């Protein structure tokens, strides 16, 4: 007996979550595609021109010549690193200046709900690359060399890697119809809405993934809602994370120095990763950037950087101190160009999990001269914190006991998370104290100012409520904070907090105003003042809606009611004018 | 109640009504001016069958020749393939036979095949006899049904029959015999069609 009771529409609405709005239903061709990707390009090698963009989807997508040139160079390994076969990596490049930054208003709404480290950076694009190089005697060059590249603002590394792995091998065999099909699939995807369980069909399989929200507890790995017992990768693939790289694998070549690397990243020190191939350089740079999560790494970072990059001169000049950026490079030329950089990570081939180099010491920079320098960390940096022997022992024990790589990765990720949280909690606590008291927020005065950040006062709080409350690590925490306060990571973090608190203050002020008896107030004031109040309230309402102020849900309707009742208490001619200004 | 995801693909010549069948099944609607599919479109619908929920992941492939090479992506891992022809166009039935051969050679071994003659509302201009198609379907142990996406004839029945033929999880080994036999049979595959 079969019961056919579930209408498909209902189910699909439910699957797509609350995001399927009227705007989405009315979307134009490529609207949905652009919520995920800027474009897809194929970069090939032309004997006369060098690398060139051969195919661009959608055909109307815009890239400046500079952007195209960057994409071309960044989509190919830049040294003869023998990347034979298929290689995947990722790069990041600056959006050409002067280009209109048009953020879809709908997408802005999503950005708001994202954790800070997953928010889009309006000035940068990510490029996700699948590069194939195989011998082909029928070609003049003797090799088939091509890259399929996805350009996007979204830093969803794991996700795009998975998608590319699905599309690219098919494309290299079946050519254009395959890209057409892929783009058409993507153009039907639901919007990248944080928190919703997304089912994304692509080329015969369904990728299931959830984008984290800012309300998720940090460190909780995404739990998939739907876990149907099924292992067939031809039907569906569930991704446990949309963005996280395998920290343990990436750090295994420099595993004894992880804590020092965490400090270097936290402080925004100039850091270069020299790796044998773009996939290793990009993974290591992304691992570095993510090891201070949930803090956002605020400076520039380039998972893969070449000598042809537009910013090459800017970043390698010797006339200034090295910029506070993290670069991943493969070209041996950089060993010389970046000789003056204070911290250099040199990695050999990333070994399979389980093999960890035995060497311990950080190497002296002067020993880094040539291409054949040994893998390791080259720096004269003295870490502020004492080394945590326990995590090293724990991971080493895991290696001996053949603990699965995923478990090692989880341990390392949790370690970094706890370390970062121990570090940031005292700052959070102090900054929260800059908020004025609730009783000082008065409806008829403008909102009070936030107190200024004072380094001395903050340092004083550390004695009693410092990181010692949550971390067993000893060392010069004060020194670490002092340096951090000068870094761009602090600057970025503080700006975000400041903005949030200002908005909260405005929201509280608006709520206080709503609690007043405004009709009583206008009885005691002149008509002009009443009109002035109406106009002010209207302005406030508009900006509160536009900026999504974090007010209680009933505040907006109450404010509107106040406005309406004041207007109706005014003489009729004024009412007419004030109501009319509503529609403009 | 157990939920099973079942991948289903639709194959067949361009214009035979694959997308219309899916639209009728999923949305219960019909649009005579539907655009040709690019690559494949994807829809889902969950139905109850006995004590299981069957969630059909439906890949409705493009019939146009230039997308032909992509088909393996869609039938790979499929529990069932609905191969559609147009009863008013003889040549679409020949194309169908080619799809059967391709599935036999490269498709999943126990895939349930449903031979579907669409546009049965246009009986006046019929070119493929129901009996011929039925005999062919029987010879390959496939489901056979004539449908009209336009008049909503036999659409739900088609999917009920697919649910019925798909081996249940507990007895997947014993009931496999119900499925379409797709053991490699090299003798048949070399011949060109009709």
From TrEMBL, chain A:
It comes from the Eukaryota. PROSITE patterns: DENN (PS50211). GO terms for cellular component: recycling endosome. InterPro entries: ABL9/DENND6_dom (IPR018307), DENN_C (IPR043153), DENND6 (IPR024224), Tripartite_DENN (IPR037516). Gene3D superfamilies: 3.40.50.11500. GO terms for molecular function: guanyl-nucleotide exchange factor activity. Belongs to the DENND6 family. This is Protein DENND6A. It comes from Geotrypetes seraphini (Gaboon caecilian).
From TrEMBL, chain B:
One of its GO terms (molecular function) is GTP binding. Keywords: Cytoplasmic vesicle, Endosome, GTP-binding, Lipoprotein, Membrane, Nucleotide-binding, Prenylation. It is a lipid-anchor. One of its GO terms (cellular component) is early endosome. It is found in: Cytoplasmic vesicle, Phagosome membrane; Early endosome. InterPro entries: P-loop_NTPase, Small_GTP-bd, Small_GTPase. PROSITE patterns: RAB, RAS. Its main location: membrane. The gene is RAB22A. Belongs to the small GTPase superfamily. Rab family. Pfam families: Ras. Gene3D superfamilies: P-loop containing nucleotide triphosphate hydrolases. The keyword Nucleotide-binding applies. This is Ras-related protein Rab-22A. The keyword Lipoprotein applies.
């Amino acid at each position: 007996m079969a019961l056919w009771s579930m209408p498909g529409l209902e189910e699909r609405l439910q699957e797509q979550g609350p995001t399927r709005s009227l705007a989405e239903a009315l979307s134009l061709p490529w609207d949905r595609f652009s919520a995920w990707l800027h474009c897809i390009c194929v970069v090939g090698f032309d004997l006369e021109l060098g690398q060139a963009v051969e195919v661009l989807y959608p055909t109307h997508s815009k890239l400046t010549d500079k952007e195209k040139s960057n994409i071309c160079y960044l989509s190919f390994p830049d040294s003869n690193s023998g990347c034979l076969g298929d290689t995947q990596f990722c790069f990041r490049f600056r959006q050409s200046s002067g280009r209109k930054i048009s953020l879809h208003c709908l997408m802005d709404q999503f950005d708001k709900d994202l954790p800070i480290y997953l928010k889009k950076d309006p000035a940068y694009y990510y490029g996700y690359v699948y590069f194939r190089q195989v011998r082909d005697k029928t070609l003049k060059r003797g090799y088939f060399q091509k890259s399929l590249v996805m350009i996007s603002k979204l830093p969803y590394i794991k996700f795009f890697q998975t998608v590319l792995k699905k599309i690219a091998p098919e494309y290299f065999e079946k050519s254009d119809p395959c890209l057409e099909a892929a783009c058409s699939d993507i153009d039907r995807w639901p919007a990248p809405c944080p928190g919703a369980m997304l089912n994304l069909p692509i080329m015969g399989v369904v990728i299931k993934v959830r984008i984290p929200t800012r309300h998720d507890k940090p460190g909780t790995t995404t739990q998939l809602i739907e876990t149907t017992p099924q292992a067939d990768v031809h039907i569906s693939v569930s991704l446990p994370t949309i963005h996280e790289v395998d920290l343990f694998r990436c750090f295994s070549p420099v595993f004894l120095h992880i804590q020092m690397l965490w400090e270097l990243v936290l402080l925004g020190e100039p850091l270069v990763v020299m790796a044998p191939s773009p996939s290793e350089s990009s993974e290591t740079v992304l691992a570095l950037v993510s090891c201070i999560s949930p803090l956002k790494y605020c400076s520039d970072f380039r998972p893969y950087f070449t000598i042809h990059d537009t910013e090459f001169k800017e970043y390698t000049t010797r006339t200034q101190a090295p910029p506070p950026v993290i670069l991943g490079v493969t070209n041996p030329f950089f060993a010389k160009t970046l000789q003056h950089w204070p911290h250099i990570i040199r990695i050999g081939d990333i070994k399979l999990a389980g093999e960890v180099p035995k060497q311990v010491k950080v190497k002296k920079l002067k020993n880094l001269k040539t291409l054949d320098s040994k893998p390791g960390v080259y720096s004269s940096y003295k870490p502020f914190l004492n080394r945590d022997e326990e995590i090293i022992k724990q991971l080493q024990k895991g290696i001996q006991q053949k603990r699965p790589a995923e478990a090692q990765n989880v341990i390392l990720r949790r370690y970094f998370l706890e370390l970062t949280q121990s570090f940031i909690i005292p700052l959070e606590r102090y900054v929260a104290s800059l908020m004025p008291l609730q009783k000082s927020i008065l409806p008829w005065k403008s909102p009070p100012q936030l107190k200024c950040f004072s380094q001395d006062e903050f340092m004083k709080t550390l004695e009693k409520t410092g990181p010692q409350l949550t971390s067993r690590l000893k060392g010069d925490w004060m020194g670490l904070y002092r340096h951090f306060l000068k870094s761009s990571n602090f600057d970025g973090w503080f700006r975000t907090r400041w903005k949030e608190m200002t908005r909260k203050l405005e929201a509280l002020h608006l709520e206080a105003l709503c609690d007043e008896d405004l009709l009583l107030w206008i009885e005691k004031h002149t008509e002009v003042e009443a009109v002035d109040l109406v106009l002010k309230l209207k302005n406030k309402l508009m900006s509160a809606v536009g900026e999504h102020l974090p007010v209680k849900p009933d505040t907006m309707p109450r404010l509107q009611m106040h406005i309406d009742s004041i207007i109706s208490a005014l003489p009729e001619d004024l009412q007419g004018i004030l109501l009319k200004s509503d529609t403009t | 109640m157990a939920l099973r995801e079942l991948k289903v693909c639709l194959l067949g010549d361009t214009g035979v009504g694959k997308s219309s069948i899916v639209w009728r099944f999923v949305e219960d609607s019909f649009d005579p001016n539907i655009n040709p599919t690019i690559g494949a479109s994807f829809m889902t619908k969950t139905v109850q069958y006995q004590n299981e929920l069957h969630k059909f992941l439906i890949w409705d492939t493009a019939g146009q020749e230039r997308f032909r090479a992509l088909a393996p992506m869609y039938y790979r891992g499929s529990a069932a393939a609905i191969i559609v022809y147009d009863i008013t166009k003889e040549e679409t039935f020949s194309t169908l036979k080619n799809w059967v051969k391709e599935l036999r050679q490269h498709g999943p071994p126990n895939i349930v095949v449903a031979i579907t003659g669409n546009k049965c509302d246009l009986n006046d201009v019929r070119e493929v006899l129901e009996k011929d198609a039925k005999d062919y379907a029987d010879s390959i142990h496939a489901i056979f049904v004539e449908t009209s996406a336009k008049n909503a004839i036999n659409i739900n029945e088609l999917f009920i029959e697919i649910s019925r033929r798909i081996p249940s999880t507990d007895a997947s080994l014993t009931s496999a015999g119900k499925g379409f036999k797709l053991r490699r049979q090299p003798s048949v595959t070399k011949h060109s069609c009709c």
